[in-house]
UniProtKB/TrEMBL annotation:
SUPFAM superfamilies on file: NAD(P)-binding Rossmann-fold domains (SSF51735)
PANTHER family registered for this protein in UniProt: BIFUNCTIONAL POLYMYXIN RESISTANCE PROTEIN ARNA (PTHR43245)
Name this polypeptide is given: NAD-dependent epimerase/dehydratase
Domain NAD-dependent epimerase/dehydratase residue range list: 8-250
InterPro entries the UniProt entry points to: Epimerase_deHydtase, Lipid_A_modif_metabolic_enz, NAD(P)-bd_dom_sf
Pfam families referenced in this protein's UniProt entry, alphabetically: Epimerase (PF01370)
Organism: Streptomyces chartreusis
Length: 335
């Protein structure tokens, strides 16, 4: 008797990270249920059997319906208050409903669910390295004591704790994958990048100065979105090794943002034939947070050892792909 391939339910399939994960998993002989508010485009040449489901996951019973029959759930849903930011204001109950409430619903939906071999369902949840809060160390490896300052990070940490508590109870197999600064486009991108690197690319293309809230020496671990997608695919293959804790993703390199932005300006100039726009320091706005001025590099060696994953896309190549996509007008077709 033929055995059905595993069913992977991807929540947030049209989001920036989720759409990249969908493209990566579509190359595999899987069953995929791609769930999002609007229908997700099926990647060209997909090997997977892909069911596209449009749903508002905040509705009563919507999460339970979405994950019914799942072997693996990948949760990449992110609340966004606007077109260019992920920040959350204190007391934002709509954000809490998405960032925390959906995980609560997911835990309840999967508590009594089992896969064909009797195992708990695996849940891979996209968190944020910033959940640790602003620390007095630059290199993070996942052993830090979490002290989040901003509302977004507090909500993400609350959601992660719900997931890992459910794993400890045996209700599911849960792993949290904390992401650093994720950026970028490739030729097949279908979702808008709201991050700072691409935002500055747009500024440069429009002839505006690239602005920084510091002197440019602040470092960030910049991880190309397609490498993130490969990490989630690797996690699907190693649920037992990952379950029960959080893991950090990153390149292991802290890139000075001033240098990154000057590279972006030069790449844009190479496409337009115009002089590179200046990269300048400006006073920070009132909504700036302490973490905006701290350097962050990620030691992802634990995740690499557990899964064999590594970030393989050189920064220059990822920046070049991103700038080419924006300059070509690729963003105009994205929502």
């Amino acid at each position: 008797m033929a055995v059905n391939p595993p069913l992977v339910v991807l929540l947030g399939a049209t989001g920036f990270v989720g759409s990249a994960v969908l493209r990566e998993l579509a190359r595999r002989p899987l069953r995929i249920r791609a769930v999002s508010r609007r229908p997700a485009p099926v990647p060209a040449g997909a090997r997977a059997d892909i069911e596209v489901r449009a749903a508002d996951l905040t509705g009563p019973g919507a999460v339970a319906e979405a994950v019914a029959g799942a072997d693996v759930v990948i949760h990449t849903v992110l609340y966004s208050a606007g077109a260019t930011t992920w920040r959350v204001e204190d007391g934002d109950t709509a954000a809490e409903r998405v960032n925390v409430g959906l995980v609560r619903d997911l835990v309840e939906a999967l508590r009594d669910a089992r896969t064909a071999d009797g195992s708990p369902v695996t849940v891979l949840w996209a968190g944020a390295a910033s959940q640790a809060g602003p620390l007095d160390k630059e290199v993070l490896d996942g052993t830090e004591t979490d002290r989040p300052k901003g509302e977004y990070d507090r909500q993400k940490l609350a959601a992660e704790r719900l997931l890992l508590a459910a794993d400890a109870e045996g209700a599911l197999r849960g792993a949290a994958i904390r992401l650093p600064t994720v950026f970028g486009y490739g030729p097949d991108s279908t979702a808008r990048d709201k991050g700072v690197v691409t935002f500055m690319t747009r500024r440069a293309l429009s002839g505006e100065s690239i602005t920084m809230w510091h002197d440019g020496t602040v470092r960030r671990d910049l991880l190309y979105v397609e490498d993130v997608a490969r990490a989630f695919a690797a996690a699907v293959d190693h649920p037992d090794a990952l379950a029960g804790r959080h893991w950090l993703l990153g390149t292991g390199r802290g890139e000075p943002l001033g240098e990154v932005f000057r590279t972006v300006a030069a790449l844009v100039a190479g496409h337009t034939g115009k002089p590179a726009v200046p990269v300048v320091s400006v006073p920070p706005p009132a909504h700036a947070e302490p973490g905006d001025f701290r350097s962050v590099t990620i030691d992802a060696s634990a995740f690499a050892a557990a899964t064999g994953w590594s970030a393989v896309t050189p920064l220059d190549e990822a920046l070049a792909r991103t700038v080419a996509f924006v300059v070509s007008g690729g963003e105009e077709a994205l929502s």
